[in-house]
From TrEMBL:
Residues 586-663 form the BRCT domain. Belongs to the NAD-dependent DNA ligase family. LigA subfamily. This is DNA ligase. PANTHER family: CHROMOSOME TRANSMISSION FIDELITY FACTOR 18, DNA LIGASE. It comes from Paenibacillus gyeongsangnamensis. One of its GO terms (molecular function) is DNA ligase (NAD+) activity. InterPro entries: BRCT_dom, BRCT_dom_sf, DisA/LigA_HHH, DNA_ligase, DNA_ligase_CS, DNAligase_adenylation, DNAligase_N, NA-bd_OB-fold. SUPFAM superfamilies: BRCT domain (SSF52113), DNA ligase/mRNA capping enzyme, catalytic domain (SSF56091), Nucleic acid-binding proteins (SSF50249), RuvA domain 2-like (SSF47781).
């Protein structure tokens, strides 16, 4: 798998799990498994900025807005903090602030691991509570916040309007009680208090919130009409006097040494706290100084969040199993003696590939050191050979697929080992799940569990069978494989709707090796239908945007298979669109050789619409500005990208000028 394919695949996975977690409250993976995907995507995009896309999950602040709850606009944008990881970075931050304001003071606080909310009080009464959402628009969870005992429904000072920012969390003790209750009732299992707190706060039934005993720490005053404050610490003291539960044990510091000492003290006691933290926050105390320092489009310049190095512990590898992914990749997974690490139980850790196992000399039965990268992702740091018992077993990834018994093959010039079979159930499940994902055919409600159930029951064997599920509607309702009548009908309607998708979504859904969303758009912009693509020559393909030898060869190989042509015919008979809706427009390649960067909010076009127009006309879209950038398409609230474009002398255009380029 090349870098571009990895990035496209990671984006699809992250978007899918975002939707399951934020929009449906049905997380299918743990927080640290999700964060592993997200961090790997971010790392690859930073290393290969030419592949950054404006619609990537890494380019958004916060989550999407949950559909079932009322949307509310924020009065103050809810932005993140810049992360720092070393003592040197903290000292650099302090020095930079000190160079811009005189004798600054700093407040050091614990960074609570929970869910951010904004509380609004009018004339002293609590009137609204909003989640972070995308930073501009959140969702009202007011009724649920009324069930949190530590949130006062009325405060003594009747200001016309007060807005504060806090973190809703669940204590470790409460978390353990909920887990025990769920275990007794065979309910859904949650891995972390933060995960459970977030899911609880988004419940549509407030009684669930009452039962789960959520709590809150308020950590910032956003708006206080009718009352002025000079410092952050002064505002926290006042809020506490109003009955709000503020961030505990904060400390005002004046030097970098003081700050580092207290940050270290928090780090030493974090495992003994009754609640989870995921770092320490260093903020400028004086509010006037904050205004001088200002804010970028994504982070304030007056605060940073320090992330502690991961806690390490020893445990034993009981066994190693392999998982088979969508592309057939075999990933070894270490099964560990359970150990509590960074507040949660860890019993599994990925071993990546055979080279990783060999380089760290890992054997079954070994004592190993594990940690959570960023306190999230379990990983094996090293084995301890001196503690190795005599009965340890060296592990080699099998030469036969454990799912379908087909021979495995190692990637040429790569470390990955893959199943060579075309009918491997594990690959088929993940392949069909990818086909239905948001970046491909966007069939809502068709996740891995539904796919696996339908395949196990024999209703689908390939993606074409999806479009015949309506023939079994009554059976599916009776058996409850994907839910009852409403769930089945919703799924069948989503499948039917997907037939009208543009051809690039179908090509993306095929999961062709080295072909992602952008490559699929390049194909469907240049050819009128799937038959033209099937008959394309190497010379035609190699001339397309972003096509090199590897991608062109992958496309030719896929469409040379008899099974591919049989699949296409089945999809046509089922009524799935195989015509390109943009190919005629795309004959105009006026943007060939041009690279665009999109920043800010455009008046009429969404970012993905602008991206599509650029790509349809032969251009490329990048996520970062460089000397190679041809145009920066700028909208409202454009941030650092606009500043960099001005510094580099890159041409900046607005939406009207962009439309003129298209005329």
């Amino acid at each position: 798998m090349n870098v571009k394919e990895q990035i496209e695949d990671l984006r699809a996975q992250v978007k899918y799990h975002n939707e399951k977690y934020y929009d449906k409250d049905q997380p299918e993976i743990t927080d640290y498994e999700y964060d592993k995907l997200y961090k790997e995507l971010k790392r690859l995009e930073e290393e290969f900025p030419e592949f950054i896309s404006s619609d990537s999950p890494t380019q958004k602040v916060g989550s999407s807005v949950k559909r079932e709850l009322r949307k509310v606009e924020h009065d103050v944008p809810v932005i993140s903090l810049q992360d720092v990881f070393t003592k040197e970075e903290i000292y650099n931050f302090v020095n930079k602030v000190s160079s811009q304001v005189s004798n600054p003071k700093f407040v050091v606080e614990m960074k609570i691991d929970g869910l951010t909310v904004m509380l609004r009080y009018h004339n002293g009464k609590l009137t609204e509570g909003i989640t972070r959402g995308d930073g501009e628009v959140g969702e009202s969870v007011y009724e649920n916040l009324l069930e949190i005992k530590s949130i006062p429904k009325e405060i003594s000072t009747k200001l016309p309007y007060l807005e504060v920012r806090g973190e809703v969390y669940m204590s470790n003790e409460t978390f353990e009680k909920v887990l025990q209750n769920q275990k007794d009732a065979n309910g859904k299992k949650y891995k972390t208090p933060r995960n459970l707190a977030a899911g609880t706060l988004r419940q549509l039934d407030s009684r669930v919130v009452r039962e789960r005993n959520l709590d809150i720490f308020v950590f910032n005053l956003e708006i206080s009409e009718g009352k002025e404050f000079t410092s952050h610490s002064e505002s926290l003291d006042w809020l506490e006097n109003q009955g709000l539960k503020t961030i505990p044990d904060y400390k005002v510091c004046t030097t970098a040494d003081e700050i580092w000492k207290y940050v270290s003290e928090i780090g030493e006691k974090r495992s003994t706290l009754s609640f989870g933290i995921d770092g320490a926050v260093i903020k400028v105390d004086n509010l006037s100084d904050r205004k001088v320092l200002g804010t970028t489009s994504k982070v304030p310049r007056w605060a940073v969040a320090f992330k502690y190095p991961p806690e390490q512990k020893e445990t034993v590898i009981k066994d190693i199993k392999v998982q088979v992914g969508r592309t057939g990749r075999l990933t070894p997974l270490a099964l560990l003696e359970p150990v509590i690490l960074a507040g949660t139980e860890v019993s599994k850790a990925t071993l990546h590939n055979q080279d990783f196992i060999d380089s760290k000399d890992i054997q079954i039965g070994d004592t190993v050191v594990i940690q959570k990268a960023g306190d999230i992702i379990p990983e094996v740091v090293r084995s301890i050979p001196e503690k190795r018992p005599s009965n340890t077993v060296k592990y080699t990834i099998p030469q036969m697929c454990p799912i379908c018994n087909s021979p495995t093959v190692r990637d040429e010039n790569g470390a990955d080992i893959r199943c060579g079979g075309n009918e491997c159930l594990a690959q088929l499940i993940r392949g069909i799940t990818y086909f239905a994902s948001k970046d491909a055919m966007d069939i809502e409600g068709f996740g891995p569990s539904s796919v696996e159930s339908l395949m196990s029951e024999g209703y689908i064997k390939n993606i074409a069978d999806i479009y015949h599920l309506k023939e079994y509607r009554d059976e599916l309702i009776e058996k409850g494989i994907v839910g009852r009548e409403k769930s089945v009908d919703n799924l069948l309607n989503a499948i039917d709707k997907s037939k009208e998708n543009d051809l690039d979504q179908l090509i993306t859904g095929f999961g062709i090796k080295n072909v992602g969303k952008q490559t699929a758009r390049a194909l469907t912009s240049s050819f009128a239908d799937i038959d033209e693509i099937s008959n394309a020559t190497y010379d035609q393909l190699i001339m397309l945007p972003d096509f090199g030898d590897t991608v062109a060869t992958s496309v030719l190989s896929f469409f040379s298979l008899n099974s591919t042509h049989e699949l296409i015919e089945k999809l046509k008979r089922a009524g799935v669109n195989t015509q390109s809706k943009v190919s005629e427009i795309s004959k105009d390649d006026r943007f060939t050789g041009k690279t665009f960067v999109i920043t800010g909010t455009l008046p009429n076009l969404k970012r993905d619409e602008a991206t599509r127009l650029i790509q349809m006309h032969g251009g490329k879209v990048s996520g970062s500005v460089s000397k190679k950038t041809s145009f920066v398409l700028s909208g409202e609230e454009a941030g650092s990208k606009l500043t960099k474009a001005e510094e580099l002398g890159v041409k900046i255009i607005n939406e009207e000028e962009f439309n003129n380029l298209l005329k």
